[in-house]
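task queued by scheduler; priority normal; single chain, no ligands, no partner chains; default sampling; output format set to structure tokens
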Amino acid sequence: MERAGQEPGSRQPGAAGRGHADHCDTGFIRRGRNRTNNVSGQVAQFGESPQASNYSLLPGQREERFGGCVWRGPQSGKNKPRNQGGQANSGATGHWNEQENEGRRMRHLGGQTHERARGSWNYQDNESGGRRYQGGQAHEKTRRPWNEQENEGRGRRYQCGQSWEGARELRNGQENEGRGRRMQSRENPHYHQNPAPGGAQLSEQPQQVKRIGYKFLESLLQKDPSEVVITLASSLGLKELLSQAAMKPNFLQLVCQVLRKACSSRMDRQSVQQLLGVVKESNFLRICLPQYVSDMVTEVVPSVRHQYPVHISNIISLLQDLISVFPASSVQKISVLLTVLPASISALRAAGVDITEETEKNLNKVQMLVQHLQEKKREGTLRADNYTLMQLQTDSPDESYRTMTIYPTYNELHRDEKPFLRPNIVSGRYESTSIYLDTHFRLLREDFIRPLREGIWELLQSFEEKGLRKKKFDDIRIYFDTRIIAPLCSPTGIVYKVQFDIKPLKFVRWQNSKRLLYGSLVCMSKDHFETCLFATVSNRDNADLACGIVQLCFNSQSHALLAQVQPSDSFLMVETTAYFEAYQHVLEGIQEIQEEDIPFQKYIVECDTQVKQPAYLTMDTAYNFAPLMEDPLLDKDIYPDGLRTQSVHVLDPKQWPSMETLRLDESQMEALRLALTKELAIIQGPPGTGKTYVGLKIVQALLTNKHVWQSTVQKSPILIVCYTNHALDQFLEGIYSFQNHGIVRVGGRSSSEVLKQFTLRELRKKSQFRLNLPMHLRRAYVNITNEMKQAEQELYEGAKHLECTTYGVLHERHLEACIAPQHWDSLMNGLDDEEFYYSASKHSVILEWLGLGVTVFTQNPAQNIRAENPGGHQETEEEWEGGVEEELLEIPEEADLIQADRVIEDEEAAKPQGRKEEELRAVNELASVLLAIKLEGQEEATAQPQQKTTQWEVTAAQRKKMKQKMKVELRKLSAMTELEARDIRDLWQLDLSSRWRLYRLWLQTYQGLIRRRILQHEQQYQAAAERLTELRLQEDLCILKEAQVVGMTTTGAAKYRQILQKVEPQIIIVEEAAEVLEAHTITTLGKASQHLILIGDHQQHRMRPEIAQLLSPHIYQELENHPSVLTYENIKGVLANLFFVEHDFPEQEIQEGKSHQNPHEAQFVVELCKYLLCQDYLPSQITILTTYTGQLFCLRKLMPAKTFAGVKVHVVDKYQGEENDIILLSLVRSNKEERTGFLQIPNRICVALSRARKGLYCIGNMRMLGKVPLWSKIIHTLREKGHIGHSLALSCQNHPATRTLVSTAADFSKVPEGGCSRPCEFRLSCGHVCMRACHPYDAQHTEYQCLKPCQKVLCADGHRCPRSCYEPCGPCMVMVEKTISKCGHLQMVPCSVPESEVICQEPCQKMLNCGHTCNQFCGQECTKRCPELVTVTLKCGHNQKVKCWITEEMKHEKPVECKTKCSATLQCGHVCSGSCHTCFERRFHKPCKSPCKRFLVCSHKCQQPCTTECPPCQLECENHCIHSRCKKKCGESCFPCAEPCEWRCQHYQCTNLCSEPCNRPRCNTPCAELLPCGHPCVGLCGEPCPKKCLVCDHEELTQIFFGFEEDPNARFVQLEDCGHIFESQGLDHYMDEDDDVIKLKVCPMCQTPIRKNLRYGTIVKRRLDEIEKVKEKIQGPAQQVESSRQRLQAALSGNAVLQRNLPLKYLMLEDKLRASDLSTRSIGLIENQLKFYERVADLTHSMNKIDANERKGLRKKLDEVQEWLDKPRLSFTGQELSDLQAEVQRLTYLVSLLARCKGLGWTTPSALAAVIASAREILEGTKRFTEEDEAAVKAALEKLRAALPPSGLGLSEAERVQIVSAIGCSPGHWFKCQNGHIYVIGECGGAMERSTCPECHAVIGGTNHTLDSSNSLASEMDGATHAAWSETANNLLNFEDLRRLF
């Protein structure tokens, strides 16, 4: 404790020497300490491998990672951490802004303490650092805004992995530094656990860093490139190897050789990228290689010199790889090496070394590429490494397909131009293989780009239309107001949670919708598609989609733009229906495939019809056909053995078994022979001809004779490719019947139980696979998954916070880092409402400010409306112009079935339901802490009080209104600009709209901070996940190589194309080949392919005979009817099972002639469908088909979902391979020109007419179609059978004789209920008659609802039921008058309600205890909180009006904030703007807020209020050049630009660096360029052309300013900073003038500082240099700052009292002193803070010297000092120093007084008591501590010192000696209670009984010789060092006995 009268700020000598034990159980440790049981006493430095530090986990511990640090904590929250000599653990700390970083209130909660330092209040970047402490230790959050949660309840537990608490309390909060409850901690559950490969139980601990040596690299040269790159990329020693600054030549050569081999792997591109990323940042590239190449010139040994060409080739190859992977970031890195290479090559050539032409050619390529990239960099178009390296000549329309981007380009989306396409040659040969590939690439790409291109083009034309949201687009689907919420980790990489506006889609049935299916491509834009983000749907959950949530995976080109995206950004999202993943893999495959590697070119490209036998067959090749002859259903013994082993020469048709023996018909036999003997075989046939059956025979024959075609060296499976999962399952199950092992299935989810064992996922689990997996893959797997785990742990917390920001309004305590200090003070001090401040619970000020709070919703309704809408406009929840429309039938495909076809089974990333719920619970729990009010579940999450007794409790209606208003505001896009925000002083003066705009600015800043924090972890996780995907492919390769049959869907084959090239299947069989595009088949083939078999559609359509007659013989020559089709029942309600309705109603063109619709047909088909549904057919039994997409949407508009749900509606083309019981077909075409379109194509006719099993009804203009020959034949057949006419005959099921003819939709009104027009007349169970017309459905009327009035009597008064007959009657609700017995009032109430249950609505007349009248209803409980205003006198002496109930709170010491203005004159001369409360009753004045308004040296206006000396500018630095922009704060020194100066023209060129003054003159030659208007430029050579023209803008340009503007030779210069244009001669003169002021030159017209201008660059640079010198002077000499830093660090580290009593302040000061940007000013601030905190710590430490019942009051006063001390400031003003010194001095005296008075009881003399009372009145008063007060207190203390000696016993020394002598006990018998009252224990001195203290009634004494734990020895009474009966005393006695013995 400091002595009374000592000045604050001077440290007591020797204070640092007062030693105190560093107790672990306080819950605090030093910052940066090793947080483990560290036996060795060492700990890994930040970012270092744990193995390097020799520590290990002890039993019961776990390891966790966050922010690159490793910490170890106990498994259970019960264990306390121990620190055994651990050294400081260095950590990363970010830059601190001095006015923000003053630590706010800190708490120690749950064994963990979190400190939050004030973050950036500028609305700009806020880079941060921070530490965290885990497992019962201190947690400090310095700058991460997402960890700033407040624990309102102080005892609450968080169970979401870790607990976070913000540091700022509201004003009435209590500080508790040293107390807390233990939190339960557990491991982060959110990582997607990937099992070790094949289930291998591998350790997931990070690998020990293994040094890479010469022998290891040599061994790698013997391995496959894939193994080399995976081994290196996953090696922890790679970085160490390449970090060496010196390397021996032979070792370097070996490294280059290994790197070249590694980079040659084509399968492992992500591992190559990882490897090259390490190389790019290494000393190996920067130092070793240039040095090695330079040394080549001086090499004298010829044999060494002649080896150089090989090594040079390796180096050039490495450069090529670096540039191709990192085009943007590698250019600078390789510049030195690229400079020395040509010189060394020239020198070697001159010395006779043979440099190959290939080497020089490759070097030239590298140089040209680098030159090209440097140009792009100068243009500003090369910003990221995802830049696509194009060939330099790409202007021609037919650029090579190999360089084309797969995604749509800007020009394709914005220009309505047709793309360059080559026609697909269907008959005849292609010119070359290259043109063949180019043709199929372009056509396939156009197939998915066209709908997107045309849809976006149409959308761009429609942007100005009002009904945009209601407009339907044919090619695309649109999603409005789409937000990218947060990144998520999936096993395949980073995906994003995206939210879209669900209002326009409220009627979509997602389970049947084709919207947002897995793999679908979406394009997102927020600027009318000027920039686009492309993504694919990565996960589809119907429940999430119904809430507008979908997960997207963005392409790599979009990642650069994504980095800037925040959840508040609103996008328009466009979806194309194409399954993009399939397109992408195939298109990439075509680009990668080498022309010479394509097999069967002579047939596919050159169209040779002479097909040869497979290369593996010879004339002598014998096949065993016996297994094909066996019937698996019969006993094999009936066949002779000879038959089963019979072999025939397969190429000799005469030796083949007969078709009867093989159980085949003639066509099947021919197909089998063709397939087995020709290297390219195509098998096709009509439905039901047994193509699948033959296909299985082919596979069986090939497998039986695999020794013929399979190599003995490498196994080669047969590859089966199918279009759908269903077909794949069907075919593989057939193979399984004769081959039950060696099968691998790669495709979507399998419905076959038999085949599940053959999926990749299941096969990986087998022990055989586990044993055979190479070690390098296992090692890589462990390293990569550990990397992903670490990145995800970091990412998860940030993403969780990011998502929570969209759930509601953030509490202000979490936004504080994003709010300017003056705005924060304005926000916190602006609300004048006692209701808010004095309620038992804490509330959110920001809710009140935004019009969502308590005070708003307790005003009267008129006030409420005005508060919400100051402009009078009443906002509504929904601003969507679409309104509510009837739910229409979604054109369905079973979404899950399509999804199953698309998702490769092994890709599925669905989370277990438990984990998903757990994550949702964690997010919701976090939201309840982060948010002041939540959109959903607001009742639970809002920060409003939940007490039932509150007068102002928000009603359900008000809560709904709050939610609606908040929802509207949070979705708005307009946010306030930073410039607007800076000019605002009083936040409460803003209208509500402006408040929300400002809130959205704060929110965007907060979101931006989080987004930047987690960006690096996103990139790390994505890179690791991509490498893991490649690793999985390597594992799969191991499985596939061992297979005999590999079955894949076309999607699987496209995705696994690289693996297939490695597996090298020789035989490929494509099922459903008619469905598979040619491009898909081509990418499936490899150079090893020798045999390709294509089999047509395997579906078997079975239709009734009359329908089959339409196909045979007109389409198929002969179709055989299966017996089952002869027994089909007739269609109910219709006379014919097959009928074509003729009409001549015209069609309509839509989409500018691209599609057609026929409303007549649509209406007829819909009515017929409704009629058939009335016949009791299920909706799933009916399909409506149409031939045009336009008709599809016409149908949809007529089909409400409630009527037609389940009915399928399709375009014919999309229904290929499907069938249904009843088909309704609309042919659409009907026009005068008799154009039939594609209705004349036989294939489409076939598909349309062959889909129905039982009933086919078609409507069309048959007269017009009869002109088509095929249709003519079909119509002739129909007329013969009577199945065509103008009317369809319907037949009533109930009255079969009644027939109805229908030819139009209106005719169906004759059969309204599906029967006939007669009434039903069925008597119902209620006695009424059915009112419907005749209906065949619901014959027993079990579902009929009688709508007649009920009329039953409900009560004794005769009231009748008012409901319909079918409804339950319910109680009588007729209103009658009743007398309420409790009060006697008359009330109108429902008849059935007893009067005892009625709450009387008359006003209550009762008087409350306070004397005021109750304001509740008569029947309600009287209010407990009287709202009447009364005047009270506060403790400070001021009078104030408060609500009556608050007076009761005041009696219980509840604080009331005095609103009286302070009005004191501050030291600066301004009047204090604070109130009595905010100024702590004039003890700590509110900082002066008068604006400074001075201009700083940087040209900005000083933003700090009222300061004697302006601090460094805190705005964002505006200095920028052509290359880059400074990102620092304006007051900090800028880094000079080191790029070459760009000022050059054809006459002069500057050769200096950009930051140096230019060494060339200004060029005054006129510019020769033409402006866009066609007139000559008015500027000068080499300068940016002015935007104005002397012809077009003559008057504006020649306006006189400098005087030379009208000169005929005048040239003009445009200032880039502001855009103003001046005559060059006058501006040159102005700029050259020296005005003797250190500041930037400004625009003569608008005064904007001139920072960026090439012509005046030298002047600008000189001025900037002068300004930098001023900044350095303000910052202070670096040496002096460093010296002060070290001095303060030494003072801090030696202060044990501060560290122990205020550990968080100690850590905060420690951090501040570590900051890299300290200045003289900030050092002064820290020194003052250190001295004040030392004083507070000393006073805190001294509290144990005072009575326990006095400590609470003193703690509160110390808290007030800390709260004031913690406020953010750049420096202490004189006023602040004065206030703080006075208050600390007052408290020092108070502690001294209380310590002196400790133990005084009722015996204190009255005169002495009066002295004490007068001193306490001054020291505990609320007024400022003046010099007069200090003098009075000193005098009182002198009197006390004389009366009460230092013993503190309240006795004189003589009295103490007399009492001790009188009692006569030896030392150690005197004790004191917990409040310091003295008592004595006689006899042995050991306590044997408990009693109570006569002074304070506390416990004294003890039992069994053991003193009560609350009592202690009173050594001040007799000087004893230990109790008479104690272990110490006994030990001493024993020692005395021993001494005597010796």
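post-processing summary
- The first strand starts at residue 61 and ends at 66.
- The mean pLDDT is 77.
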